[in-house]
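#onboarding

Welcome to the new folks! Below is a worked example of what a typical request in this channel looks like: someone posts a single protein sequence, and someone else replies with the predicted structure as tokens. Don't worry about understanding the tokens yet, we'll cover that in week two.

Example request:
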Amino acid sequence: MTLQNRSWAEPYKIKMVEPLKMTTESERQAAIVEAGYNTFLLPSEDVYIDLLTDSGCGAMSDRQWAGMMAGDEAYAGSANFYKMRDAVEEYYSYKYTVPTHQGRGAENILSQILIADGNYVPGNMYFTTTRLHQELAGATFVDVIVDEAHDPASDYPFKGNVDIAKLEALAKEVGADKIPYVCIATCVNMAGGQPISMANLKEVRAWCDANNVLLVHDMTRVAENAFFIQQREDGYRDKSIREIVYELCDLTDAATMSSKKDALVNIGGFLAMNDDSIYEKACNLVVVYEGLHTYGGMAGRDMEALAIGITESVQDDHISARVGQVEYLGNKLKMMGVPIVNPIGGHAVFLDARAILPHIPQDQFPAQALAAALYVDAGVRVMERGAVSAGRSKETGENFMPKLELVRLTLPRRVYTQAHMDVVAESVERVMKQASEIKGLKFTYEPEYLRFFRGKFEPVEG
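Example response:
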């Protein structure tokens, strides 16, 4: 899509609206203090433009809403399960599907099946819930992403790529028999929504085959990744998003999916695989943690909406507009001189908090402070992706200090207009001009797990 040459519009029209509440700056200041400077703890009714996440907050189509009325809510053997299962195989290639309430349900089951105590799981940068489930199962996560992924200024087109040399070094250090699988995310969230190339995924596939290691796919944003391959990788310009998505999935052995993102539903996920023995183990565990293997924590109507959402998610005009809106916001911020992660990602624009707030040391959580300041300025809710999200070392108790200290402006699918993006960009510009007034933060409450969800903070004085 060449946004510079001509205007474009979303490939849909609005059929229903949800009114938004406007608040005053003083009301927002009181709200953020009450929330402990954590945007996750703000009531949604006090938020004007909600860019906290793209998970489960997209707008479903008229076809999906119509499908909800065809929900078969039978406890066992729901007709909607079979439609969903067939859609997963047709569009994503996997032979077996186990529904889960959302992606982390699939992560939990897969980790328990494949991981033994003392294992190592390499991946192209961690994701919070994925890493935690791996650790709870007894594994150590090892980052094998290319170095460019840790540099927000780099324009490397495939920052989600795996550094094969790092993968090989890990195998030599611990032994390939201690690596149950390589975990590959398409459009790596924590790197700024950055894609992996098809060529690199084929290299990883070859490495896994040579070392008798499984290749597991976190396919939450696979359609967005396919778009970047189509636009940036030789030999794919004339292929459809649907074809590229299938090819990506077909290179892997199993997948976890949070359907609340690319698949355009408000709830749901699945674990998919090609190995019947893994499928049998997954069916045994899903009954313990989620529900019967033909619903797994999802209502029949939600499985129907998911089956339809899968078909819509791989349509070229949809994904082009989805990524195009992210690109619109990112380019607008770059024109304003705002430091962001380059290239612009597929689901969000990531602000470089350390560049915007250089006076705040990383152990005072500049990304968390910036997210709170943006809410106070205009009622825009965003989220931190830096030291708070990274957590603490189990061994030392010290905070992890990632090279990327980011604020994520995440665009829900088919929800906001370009005018909303203009409001967001103008707010970021205002806050950046007043950056010297923003103070660092310290914890007043820190949960044991995934502290970014429920942790509370207060400003560091002085």
